Amino acid sequence: MTGSLLYLTATRPDIQFAVCLCARYQASPRTSHLQAVKQIFRYLKFTPELGLWYSSGSSLSLRGFSDADHAGCRIDRKSTSGTCQLLETSLVSWSSRKQASVALSTTEAEYVAAASCCSQLLWMKATLSDFGLRFGRIPLLVDSTSAISIAKNPVLHSRTKHIDMRFHFLRDHYEKGDIDLIHVVSANQLADIFTKPLEFDAFTRLRGYRLKVLTMHSSRGRLRANGPATLLSWCDE
Predict the structure, then answer these.
(1) Could you state, in order of their start, the residue ranges of all structural domains in the chain?
(2) Check: CATH 3.30.420.10 for 62-190?
(3) Average pLDDT along the chain
């Protein structure tokens, strides 16, 4: 069942985090994990009219969002990176991944997530250039001013010198002018939906407006408020 849901995340970004969270427990699933998967299917059953929407009149300006949930996994305390990339206002790429190593601070977790988003943006830039499109500095929106400061300031500090050098290519491409790191307030951070379970109001706002998913036309799609937020507690049992 989880494999079918992973396939469906290609067109339903609103279930990306929940499905990826359940997929972590496929090796030794419990009844609570099956309950979480069934909850996702119930959510899909009552929201069949949702889907990505692409406007024919939108431009092709590229931008990205990155966010992280520091130490979100209660088992190994690893953080979850959430990233998404848009062409103008249309969501075209997104991801939710647990980071490979334990981040010692929120700043480090955000920096690692931004590096992952930068990598995807550069790949998309190279791919789109084959079609004759040209881009200047690509905006990468991050809600951590500390992570932005690390990328813009090459001076090593005691709290950042341990960060793996492979993530500093974010700083390299900022200095080269490939990307432009921009601060965004947390309420407008589109990637937040890919990092952790959200309360109902925040979840539906990001799903229906920020992520440009089709608006629901039926009251059937309104789940109880604790629907998405209970997935994490179920999977940690």
Answers:
(1) 2-51+215-235, 62-190
(2) yes
(3) 86
- Cα atoms found within 13 Å of the Cα of residue 196, Cβ hemisphere only: 16
What is the average per-residue pLDDT within 77-96? 94
| % of the chain residues with pLDDT over 90 | 68
**Distances from the Cα of 237 to the Cα of 28, 76, 202, angstroms:** 12, 14, 25
State whether residue 212 is helix, strand or coil. Answer: coil
Structural contact between residues 65 and 191, judged by C-beta atoms closer than 8 angstroms: yes
- What predicted TM-score, i.e. pTM, was given to this entire model? 0.86
Quickly state the pLDDT bin for 210 (edges 50, 70, 90): low
Phi, psi of 77 (to 5 degrees): 60, 25
- Yes or no: say if 107 and 157 are a contact pair by the CB < 8 Å rule: no
Beta bridge partners of 139: 180
